[in-house]
């Protein structure tokens, strides 16, 4: 990815139970362990997500106890320097029909069994759940529905892992409880039964208690929900018309609601996971990715229905994609480079895909056409299929001798017999608007959110921008909305404890089903084809790497040894033998001329001599011609032969990769030795120069220090002389100052005595005068 600056994709394929999911886990762990990571906890996050996806998307089948019933496309995002930024998960082709029906030796999705083992007794009673076998959606496999001691402990442990995983990725405890409540409601929906009512083949709900419990769990009006199951309100020219459903239509409405509820809940959880795994940094145009595709494998059961038809068609596309990259692109690339193509015989399955996807006479086209006719039956569908693809593609589509409700398709892996009974019911999956209106008026915010948006063309609930921004703000808006006053469709306010009344939107075309945006109603086959198209488009823009998982035996016992016929059959029909042959005869290693010179730079530098004319040749010739001449000359001097030179590429045999690698490693070692010797010599020469400079610096420093010391001594002598002179002068000045002070003191003393004497003489004169007067 870093070298070629191209996003990569790892396609993991193989039979069901061959280890594709486990291989996906190992590949993800290896990629994350070998790369630098900005999101350091991404590996831990993905490990927390895996139990969730397996619980909600895996189930027990006839040949695999933990079979993936959906396609998982994990896209790991990288910066241009190879740092892991985050990841994104996409779901494809979830087998929603397994919720309502499956073969007797298979099971429902794991999460339903975990529910009975993990919920407390009080919660089970509050949700109205009994033993698994008492609920119709889980009563197909009575053995699996019996939760014995060991299975109870195992399921309880996995339930706690699921619960902890939901909390870890950002769901609140209220959200987790709501999820388990919705799952409980789905089981109760399957328990609804109908009885005839009225004279127009109308029906009504037989067990009203089940409807009341569902209304309580989903927080909708019991009366409106019961009415939505058996009647449809249409508005024609401003007039409201109630149309009653018959028994089959009411049953289809009930099962469609259960499938829609589970499918939308699954998509909603995946959207939450993407908010948890999304990059911390903003994505740029230079962001690249490594994607891992884990999709269900080829299936051939005792009874194959609509699910196996879609799964096997997906595997046909994967095989076709592999053929195009291995065989068709091989021949195309050789033709573009002017090289003779290699004649390889392989099984081209484009006719099988055309049998399914032909626009007018394909199996899915006829199935969609019949699904839109209310009066269509399994027999009418069988008749059209036998006269459509059965006539146009007789080498692929085999019509039964009795013309009954089955047909055989010769897949690339093996012929598969499909049962037509139930195909129409499973393909219709139409969700009436009356049910959607009831769900949108629920007081449960998650139910509102699940049905607020319509499904996209791939049948997946789009991510809501109001809920999924960043892992740190995952549920901010949701908690805010829960505290707001709810509004119904007409804008009238009602409190969360009140039941809103159901009203039709102002603009209604009278259609009771979700539409594609045109006039055609969306079917499961419609969503399937768009999902498959998007998946193939994503793979086409990446450089793909293929991992083929081989199932060792037909038994589910892991201790059983490898069975040669089983492995040989898989190697034969998967095209592994043809790939080995084309690798042997063809040119699997191809490189541009400049890419070869850059990748094996050490080999080029060591083998090709450097001359003064190289620069002039480079300027006179085009870059392609110059690089081609240098590449060919390098290979000639290196002793490489039996390769082809194309117009823009070099084409090598499979063994050339090892030869070039060994030569490159050999010359790189020699270059490394030369570099070590040269670096050592340069380092020693540099050290010698530095030592010489150091010695000169020491001499200059010593001379400088000596000069400084001599000058300092001279200055010291002069300073001593000056100090002695100053000392003598100070002594002389001090003696002179003392003499002056003594003279001044004597003068002061004499003046003092003079003043005393003058006073005495004055007093004496005064006394004499007084005496004379007397």
UniProtKB/TrEMBL annotation:
Instruction: Say yes or no: keyword Nucleotide-binding present.
Output: yes
Q: Name one GO cellular component term.
A: nucleoplasm
**One GO MF term:** protein phosphatase binding
Domain Myosin motor: where? 1-668
List UniProt keywords, sorted A-Z: Actin-binding, ATP-binding, Motor protein, Myosin, Nucleotide-binding
Q: Which SMART domains match?
A: MYSc
Species of provenance: Adineta steineri
> Which biological process annotations from GO are given for this protein?
negative regulation of G1/S transition of mitotic cell cycle; neuron projection morphogenesis; phosphatidylinositol 3-kinase/protein kinase B signal transduction
- List the taxonomic lineage: Eukaryota, Metazoa, Spiralia, Gnathifera, Rotifera
Q: Where does ATP bind?
A: 14-21
Q: Which family does it belong to?
A: Belongs to the TRAFAC class myosin-kinesin ATPase superfamily. Myosin family.
Q: What is this protein called?
A: Myosin motor domain-containing protein
Q: Does the keyword Chloroplast apply?
A: no
